[in-house]
Amino acid sequence: MSVEAREIDVEIGGRGLLRAVGLTARAGEVTAIVGPNGSGKTTLMRVLTGELRPDAGQVHLGGEPVGPEHAARMAQRRGVLPQASHLAFPFTVDEVVRIGLMSGLSAGDPALGARALAAVGLSGFGARRYQALSGGEQQRVQLARVLCQVWQPVRAGAANWLFLDEPVASLDIGHQLSIMQVARDYADGGGGVITVMHDLNLTAMFADRVLLLARGEVRAEGTPGEVLCDEVLSAAYGCRLRLNTPPVGAVPYLLPQAAGAGG
Amino acid sequence: MVAATENGMILNGLRQSRARRAHLWLGLLLLGSCLASLAIGASGTSLWQGVWRALSGAEISQMERVILWDIRAPRTGLGLLVGAGLAVSGTVMQGLFRNPLADPGIVGVSSGAAFGAVSAIVLGGLLPVGIATVFGQYLVPVAACLGSWAAVSLLYVVATRGGQTSVATMLLAGIALGALAAAGMGLLIYMADDQQLRDITFWQLGSLGGASWAKLGAVAPLLILSVAAALGLGRALNALSLGEATALHLGIPVQRIKRLAVLTVAVATGAAVAMTGVIGFIGIVVPHLLRLATGPDHGPLLINAALLGAALLLWADVIARVVIGPAELPIGIVTALIGAPVFLWILLRSRGVMGL
Fold first, then answer.
1. Transmembrane stretches, by residue range (chain B) (predicted)?
2. How distant is the Cα of B295 from the closest Cα of chain A, in angstroms?
């Protein structure tokens, strides 16, 4: 079970947003897409989820083609967390989460909504107005909705998928860690996770595979240890970066204070 | 924490069951409204007893029979269907535009329908005889539906970018559409002959007064079909309120649903306007009150909107009939007097929330 994208080209308004981008993400792993602003991360995500049809190239999820015309079938295989969500009407948190329940195959399990809210640290928020929540809380409600849609990481022998576009961008550090752990647990349970990441340290901590994009092209792909190294990152982000390794454990880390240091 | 969660579930459960219980109460209200619409009127005699005797199968006088069966029954049927159609149109438009200010009357859709209807009255005679015969009494309703369909489609294209609708653009585009339709109608009226002018004036009064079984038969299929189609859109409109991309990810065939929603609004508004002229504010007041009372879930909301819209229009018609009896107020004046202040109140409450 995997998500495979081959030779993806996307051009909008005469500008090439993605050029010959390929990606393979396996179930049971967290695959992170990183890169500087405007490098095409979100565009690639829109192609992978079937929202945007690429000008060239194909995407397959579990061997089946991906695209807007397959919306109903894909909704039972994967949930998508957008970068920002706007809600038009005064729904309560429970009602938003239930919208996720209706399309997944777990529909009809009323306890699931409460469990999903608990998973994102929002127990007891069910009756609140969604619009009265802070940005970070709203983002976690949306994640609970997505979790409800594909609650089981594996169903009938086939993996389900989470597609997350900057899931922790507006969260405080405690919730950044707990939400990334939710993604990690989903992958450890056999599901697939593809996530756009801004924070390279969290990427190093939680991802199994990293795809580095810059200017619409793949600059590096591999394990965090392979991709997150001084030369590759410095070239992609256009500034001199230095990684460090803590004395215990092998996960590298990056301090902004170290940027540009050492000439 | 656990107690709080349970509390939340109970509150939501309450809101849900309230929305379902409202089906029953609003159904009873509508039934009462139908009886009132049959019994109350300008004839001077109270017909409650006549209504009762007619319902229980007893003999009624010839006069009662004419008033009840030939005048008030089709009028009640028309009011019921038009009220349900307008309220459901408003609810669907608000769901489609993800915006509680969308209403066929406010954003120019009714004006588009009116332009279509006037076009049919003035230019219908120019059609080849064959086509005119095929359409027959359906010509004006069909032309009105085409007019409202063009208006909704244009509005959607102008006001929606990347799956999000701009409130300001939608309202401004509605003003432009209304002005365009008014100009077009002005031109047509200039071209019209005396008989056509009489038809247009009568139609513009916006009244249920001209209701007959023939007129009801011409629009009933359109209104019943469009309302029935709209009632099936609840799940999709809930998903759409999270944006078009998210609705797609939830498995909703977004493009098809959008086309169906536009068609539903166009047919319901067009058929309503063709028969009764432009009746405003039902489409915005009814869903707004229901959202306050029972929450925004479109499933029960659409059903409740149809029931309350029908009841509200019947009462507006009763008021229009008795307040300056034996003459009649145009019903559009009654709904505007009730609806416009409510609309302003909605604007006041939602300032700053919707980017206005």
1. 77-97, 109-132, 138-159, 171-192, 212-233, 260-289, 301-324, 331-348
2. 7
Is B90 within the bounds of a domain? yes
pTM to 2 decimal places: 0.88
Instruction: Please tell me the predicted confidence (pLDDT) of residue B102.
Output: 84
Q: Inter-chain contact A85–B255, Cβ cutoff 8 Å?
A: no
- Interface confidence, given as ipTM, is 0.91
Between A75, A89, A124, which is nearest B100 by CB?
A89
Going by C-alpha positions, the residue among B207, B89, B213, B210 that lies closest to residue B148 is B89
CATH 1.10.287.3510 fits A2-77+150-258, yes or no: no
The answer to whether A71 contacts B255, with C-beta atoms less than 8 Å apart, is no
In a domain, B342, yes or no: yes
Structure tokens at A108: 């009809």
CA of B145 to nearest chain A CA: how many angstroms apart?
27
CA of B247: which chain A residue's CA is closest?
Answer: A71
Residue spans of the domains in chain A: they are 2-77+150-258
DSSP assignment letter at A70? G
Confidence (pLDDT) at B351: 63
Q: Is residue B355 part of a domain?
A: no
Report the residue of chain A nearest B4, measured CA to CA. A124
Q: Are A127 and B12 in contact (CB under 8 A)?
A: yes
B348, exposed or middle or buried, with CB in 10 Å at 0-12, 13-18, 19+? exposed
DSSP string for B252-295: --HHHHHHHHHHHHHHHHHHHHHHH----SHHHHHHHHHHHHH-
Which residues span the domain enclosing B15?
2-350
Q: In which element (H, E) is residue A179 found? A: helix A173-188
CATH number, residue B335: 1.10.3470.10
CA nearest to B2 within chain A: A124
Residue B100 C-alpha, separation from nearest chain A C-alpha, in angstroms: 8
Give the H or E element holding residue A195.
Answer: strand A192-196
Report how far apart, in Å, the C-alpha atoms of A101 and of each of A114, A119, A136, B251, B284 are. 11, 15, 21, 12, 29
The answer to whether A67 and A50 are in contact (CB under 8 A) is: yes
Of the partner residues B255, B295, B353, the one whose CB lies closest to the CB of residue A95: B295
- Tokens representing B342 are 């409510």
Q: Which chain A residues are within 8 Å of B239, Cβ to Cβ?
A: 99, 102-103
Tens of pLDDT, residue by residue over A136-157, are: 999 999 999 999 999 999 988 8
Give buried/exposed letters for B149-182 (b at 16+ CB in 10 A, else e).
bbbbbbbbebbbeebebbbeebbebbeebbebbe
Whether residue B356 lies inside any domain: the answer is no
CA distance B159 to chain A (A): 15
Distance CA A55, CA A11 (A): 7
Better pLDDT: B330 or A33:
A33
SS3 state of residue A166: coil
Chain B residues whose CB is inside 8 A of the A94 CB are: 8-9, 12
Taking the CB of residue B123, how many other CB atoms lie within 10 A of it? Answer: 14
Domain count, chain B: 1
